[in-house]
Amino acid sequence: MIARRVENKIRQALLRSPSVALMGPRQVGKTTIALNISETVPAIYLDLENRTDLEKVRDITSFHAENRDKLIIMDEVQRLPEVFAPLRGIIDGERRKGNKTGQFLFLGSASIDLLRQSSESLAGRIAYIELHGVDVLEYAGDNQEMINQLWLRGGFPESLLSANNDDSLYWRRDFIKTYLERDIPQLGPRIPALTLERFWTMLSHNQGGVVNASQLARNLEVSSVTIGRYLDLMADLLLVRRLQPWTVNVGKRLVRAPKVYVRDSGITHALLNISGYNDLLGHPVVGSSWEGFVIENILSVAPASSLPFYYRTADGAVIDLVMEFAGEEKWAIEIKRSSAPSLSKGFHIACDDIKADRQYVVYAGKDKFPMGNGVTAIPLWNLMQELLDYEK
Prior knowledge:
This protein has 392 residues and is of the alpha/beta class. It has 18 helices and 14 strands.
């Protein structure tokens, strides 16, 4: 089993806050972490996809009264959003009795933004944490072979730890099928599974690109509005990331549409029927797949106060990832799969445009070294460690 860095973060949050919400896609490891925590504190675990458990918490006030000395863990909490309404009174009542922390742990398979809409009454009473897929620091460190395996198979633990690539691919295909045929319909949208799979596959082919809604609409024989609805759904389920453009006025014509990534590289490869590492290296998506993989790994360790963007002008000045921190410090990050990276003039122009405080090139080598003009070449794991240290 892979030790997940976020487990300690959840334990610390439970010491500060009466409730914590851990969000992440299905099968990414939320339940395992919650059960680990339940072994060290008095706790009761409820799976809200189980009808019996769901009925137990419909009257959460009574259930809490019977279990007020335990951490109540509710898995797949998006199945019962109305549970949040009475929690404010429960938490405030416990505060008056001196019980201020560690009362509820919610697990959900929808985005934090979506959950916030359901739990607005808990403002100041809940901490939100996102669980990403297994990342480079958790699994590989500076071992390039293991990094490549993580890139190929993706960050879902069962896919990553499969006995071989074929078993991993079968798991990911079953994951995709289950999402399309069971999980998404349970959340309400009535979208044909085949249509949504085609849409997901099209996004994989266009990994890291700006979505052309009109073209996708024509290919799927639906409206552009429907494409937007599909994209919202995939983003809410934490399966797709929309990377927004950095658009502060710099006196230039900027690309202002978001770039879209399928968040897990292994799912991207399964949708494109890429089974092995050599197949990946020979596929047209290889460069954009690596870019998406690097971005997801970076964001898995980025401080909560930071915001990710990309930057592109109509004249071709480009930065793959701009990290903007609370103190308004900006990092410009270019992503290269090569072990001998080189930079275009457009990157330097873009760094001047945004007045980047640090300039990095993430590449597939093991050494950190200066490239001149204030740019540092850095391995992925090394940059991730710098981001962890930055938060401290």
